[in-house]
# Entry
Amino acid sequence: MTDLTPEDKYSAKPIRIGEVDPHPDKPTGEFISIVVSNDYVNDEYLKMVVDVPDRALTAKAGQFYHLLCPTPDGAEVWMRRPMSIYRVDTGNKRLEFLYKKEGRGTQGMAMLEKGEEFNIVGPLGVGFWLEEGWKNIVVLGRGVGLATLAPLSQLAAEHNVGVTAILSARNPEVVMSRDLFEGLGANVIEVVDTDGSSDVDNVEKILEGLITDGKADAFFTCGSNRLLTLMKRLGKAHDIPGQVAMEQNMACGLGACYICMRTFEVDGEKTLRRVCRDGPCFNMQEAVGW
Amino acid sequence: MVDLSVKIGDVTLQNPIMPASGAFSWDYGDVIDLNRLGGLVAKTICREPRLGNPTPRMAETEAGIIQSIGLPGKGIDYFLENIVPEYNKWEPPLIVSVSADTAEDFAAMTRDLSVDGVDVIEVNISCPTKAPSGGNFAMHSEHTKEVMDGIRAATDKPVWAKLSPNAGDIVSIAVAAEEAGADALVLCNTFLSLKIRTDNFRPALGNKFGGLVSPALKPIVMRMVYQVAQECSIPVIGIGGVTKAEDVVEYMLAGASGVGIGYAGFRNPTALTTIIDDLDEWCDERGIKEISELIGAVRDDDIEWDPLVAASHGV
# Structure
């Protein structure tokens, strides 16, 4: 609009890098990010790094962005794709996403090249939280779920909370987030399918050991229903609180449309919650799984 | 300075841009300034709490998404105590959408919702996915007349009737709603649709059927708005496939006084405010001082019907 100035305190459009932010106090924005890189980090996963406006950097561990992916084929990708944040790089004013090329959204996302614009909405949702008195936490994730858990390493480091990260994957080559956790002082345990160490029985032994050693004041998980079930059971038995990051197809991402529902059980009663706004990070004991 | 305001009966909107019911909540205030919208349209409320439909509630198709939410909500008491005040923190008029299974309860709910803080009651007599039977009065003109008569008698608030594109003859439904005393007509609810997955042979939605949400709806609803506006004298609000300012202009030329936006707001949370700004600019560039000039301004009274003459004209 020609007669609009920043003083009008509103701008209708998505916010670009270097522009005056019309809504600096709003928790969420629609931003035009610029792709810095978008490459495979191993046989299965890609990492996208984007430059973003300042407000986009307010993302907390466990929150997500809603990505307007280009189409990989002849039809439109109609809805955005929710994706958890792998890393917030405040120094370079960048966000990082770690993803696997699977559906049409991520196929389209993988086509983006350095310098291209990428429309992102966020940060969105309830992230992970740390409570008073937690000295040591256990993070257990599998596959791309480890990308969601990765920012916990930073959050824990900022609060001087010790981390044991159990990283589960099909084979050692595709264990994700090892460097991020190790770099921030976490005790990293890798378990893989190829040698059977990722079996639930073995993971349970590892968790039991950590509980005995006093290293498990809280549990965190993402990416595997099997591992959620395990952590939930042990958490209940040993009275260890926990959180799980969940996913579901979404439309608006803001809480308006009620498409991204999951079942939860609170005080014996089943209920539905929105993954986008009530989560995506939830009290593990209330999550019913998927 | 362009005057973007429009009158829908006795209600004046600062601009013709509203969200479509179901596609919006105050949560959008996290991203945009809701005070810029023409109206705030709440999700449809039912008398009792409802969980809504089984998931998956959305599936993508080549032509848009189909969705089936099933009117989840916490019931009318919670709505009046908590949700109306939430919307009343903002300035634009509040349009409350309501659904019921019977004509009697529609009237009773309309009465119950006729309180301070509610500016307009939009009666959703056309939800395609609420239940396999009942609720969708707008499929037949006599049912429309019956339910609207009761609603009209129950309230002095402005009543907007939301109609169904799935009805055979939308014009007769619209006429029935007008004759029963509706203050405005909202065209349309979503188009009943089906997607079957070829990988597992199952319907893609938990509720089987869903409503199509897509820019593809625009030309179809445009035709309906045009036809209804020709026959009815009350204002029409067009909903279907608006993604840019020119779409709003087009609906207004067809006879709409306002538009509702769903899909575009899902895709871009800033879409509604972007469209308002672009609409202002569009009018300004063309010297249009009042946007209401556009309502019904389609130039079709001098269409050349002789094919031989028409084919010699430019495009």
